[in-house]
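Researcher: Checking consistency across runs. Here is LGFP repeat-containing protein again:
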Amino acid sequence: MRRTARLLPLVLTAATLIPLQHNDSDASYQEIPLDGPTVQARTKPFGMAAVTWPEGTRNVTAKIRVERDGQWTDWESLSVEDEHGPDPLVPEGIERGGTEPLWVGNATGVQASAVTDTGTTIAGAKVVLIQPGVLASDADEPSAQSVEPAASRAPYPMPLMVSRKRWGADERLRTHNGAACARPKYTTTVLAAFVHHTADRNDYTRTQVPAMVRAMYAYHVKSRGWCDLGYNFLVDRFGRVFEGRYGGAQLPVLGAHTAAFNSNSFGVALIGNFEKAAPPAAMLESTARVIAWKLDANYRSPLATITLDGSRLHTVSGHRDTKATACPGTQLYNKLGWLKQRVNTLMSGSFSTPIYQYARKLGFRNIGQPFWGEHRTRTGYATYFATRDVFYSVASGTHSTAGAFRTRFRRLGAGSARLGLPITEAYRVPGGSRQKFQRGWLVWDRRTRQVHLVYGRAS
């Protein structure tokens, strides 16, 4: 007889549960102390479950089963992927270790077990139950958008994405672990993509996915002690892309997905468990399109290698390339070779945009790395590098702004329809310097040390 079968579960009543805050999406959050090897309780309805423990606990084995419609499910092992963070803005002592969360649908009872590899109980362990609720928008489908590869389209376009607002993110939750978390933290640039799986179930429906993302968001913040959802992007089995961490999908937002390698990278999580099951073709294709968009905008080859945190890694890597983990699952990990080649095809195999060529001429050592990768503006294209912003349109050609001119042009709204794009670099004039734009000038006065705006047809 298995050891767990001899254990007498601790039976809790609803009154012993710890209900926390509800948000606007009717989400509820419950924690049950796991003081012994197992715990059992009937609860308020919940849709996602996980187990957490004090940070620093290692070699944990956790499993769970739930009660649905009066019947208990079979035991399921919970994936222990303990090293995604840390989040540097979270005060010390808040973060907790934990399993990946498991989507269970609509359950009203739970039995869970968590022990170390020596069979000892874990002081401070908790079972977490989350009910993300249902929103009217959960059944909405994003409109179709063609992003087929075309060598003439550079950079590769941003794929259609379900925004945080669309999937129902409660932005107030970002202050749960301190006011500092409300403002996103950015890294210097994008050098690499890390592919993950959420180690969740694979049989979810289309309408359940937004609720799953909301529940994962609540778990990462309230249970793990992070600032926000750990991943930058998520992809469901139907091929839909979801915006993850707050801060602007186009920008190098620091996530909490690959521990010491979070800086200068982004994390894409495929929703499901791909240790034994293969990821669907639509899911892989959408993952390739997200990676192609981010890498192409930042002029990174998917076939290259880079150095992160002192380690040599492929530009497109799996979580397991950085530590001993099963993530992103063997079947998905085996597809990384295909994924790199598909990304390369979508990117047309090379960088050939006028902005990239101009940046090479200026020298990346002089202008730094891309911060906001190449993107469309109202009047053309732009890339914001560390020390210069470079703009291009057919009418203006390729030119850059720097220093005080860059600051003022950004305040105007770079790509301003009224002023237009720069048609020269800055040049000296008596008493200061100026830069010509399509419909005026920016003039720096050496005496006042201010930049003045002058409208008029540049000649």
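Researcher: Does this match what you'd expect to see?
Model: One thing to look at in this run: The CA atoms of residues 186 and 253 lie 5 Å apart.
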